[in-house]
Amino acid sequence: MRAPREIALRINGASYVGRAEPRKTLADFIREDCGLTGTHLGCEHGVCGACTILMNGDAVRSCLMFAVQAEGAELMTVEGLADGDRLHPIQQAFWEHHALQCGFCTPGFLMTTLEFLRDTPRPTDREIREGLSGNLCRCTGYQNIVRAVAAAADALASTPHGAVRPAPPDAAADPAAAGTGRPARKRRAGASQSRVRRKARRRGG
Amino acid sequence: MKPAAFDYEAPETVEEAVALLGAHGDRAKVLAGGQSLVPLMNMRLARPEVVVDINRIRSLDYLTADAGVLAFGALCRQRAAERSAAVARLCPLLGDALALVGHAQIRNRGTVVGSLAHADPAAELCAVLAALGGTVTAVGPGGARSIPAEDLFVSYLTTSLDPRELVTEARFPALPRGAGWAWKEISRRHGDFALAGVGVVLAVRGGTVAHARIALIGVGPTAVRASRAERSLVGAAPSDGLWEDAADAVRSEVEPDADIHASAEYRRHVAGVLTRRALVEAATRARDAA
Q1: What is the pLDDT of residues B192-233, one digit of tens each?
Q2: Which chain B residues are Cβ-neighbours of A60 within 8 angstroms?
Q3: pTM, two decimal places
Q4: What ipTM is given for this predicted complex?
Q5: Do residues A126 and A26 both lie within one domain?
Q6: Which of B31, B42, B191 sits opposite A134 (nearest CB)?
Q7: Is residue A194 one of the residues assigned to a domain?
Q8: What's A151's domain CATH number?
Q9: Whose CA is closest to B10, among B38, B51, B46?
């Protein structure tokens, strides 16, 4: 069954349906088929952590899963953090503590931190460092990231809604609103399929 | 960094999975957590023609503690095992080792059984299974069989499993009552593969060592038991000199390889250092049962 198959899942509260070959990683599906390019791909073999997302509440490396495996799953990507123009407390802390320079690794750090602070709301410095050890940053030297996570823990402790902000209500609750993304998705899915066909021809030739 | 094309099968029962593996043999790979397989596929170091994804076999997602044995179904994630109260109570050596398997994001997907079936010589869980004398259950076309740790690990990433077999369960015996334990390893960063590591179980009765298990990672083609060092401990009275002698015995019986991360000499030396530290810690934890 190597032919493309239909994949339906939810990301940040919105429904997405696309078609992908089984070999397509979840990270590529999120970026290319769902159009959510906030999830970044660094190493594509599970070392750098840039592609970290939440799947059914767990932080996972989206480059180490196939999209077909996420059928029916509830995902959260970096796009689901901010509430409109209002940054999530973790994002705000990264901003205030200069915890990013080029920003490429930041989506992975943010999503890792989201799970980490949910599970470890009052972390020690050592726990923060261990919790972030699966994410690589080549700019900051990590000091400011550790400070930002500590500050985010304080901020979240005084925020009533906790670490995981609910998805924007228009996309989450209203099926019609979720449907607005569908034409774009279908178009993207079609483009991706033709790319796949081109690759297959090259392989054949 | 994109995997080669493959046929994807997602069976919902063990029987379906075994039938698929029976039909495809070594052209198929089992996908559980995927934290070792998918990187290999992304780099095209592995190009299975068929991927049998067992993640939809809900009956394999369990962790039970029964009659002094912890049983992990093939879908039990490392993170679930790490957080399990039964693991902390019955087998804290496993709990300590689990916390050092990759990173949290890896353990959220990676399975206990998958790590054993992958048989990386630097994998903590392989050494814990070896130290405790655990087993895995494999189901193949001819039915189920139980494979002890010493018969499972053959060489680098190589087990005695038949490609048509699916490991459905891993069984870790609980530590002996009152036994002390310690896991020690050295790695470049938290969560990286260890350059060397050791797990120790030690029971003391009537002022002498009654039971000693030492298993190491990163110092040979498989996780290895240090039998000579174990024998040197049993029957002797705990002392700094005893731990030092056991560490020397470990250095003499491991055959580490060099790679870009560490020389063979370094790994051999560190294996001894870690063993001594682990024995001291395990002895402190062991309650004299006599």
Answers
A1: 899 999 999 999 999 999 999 999 999 999 999 999 999 999
A2: 105, 108-109
A3: 0.90
A4: 0.94
A5: no
A6: B191
A7: yes
A8: 1.10.150.120
A9: B51
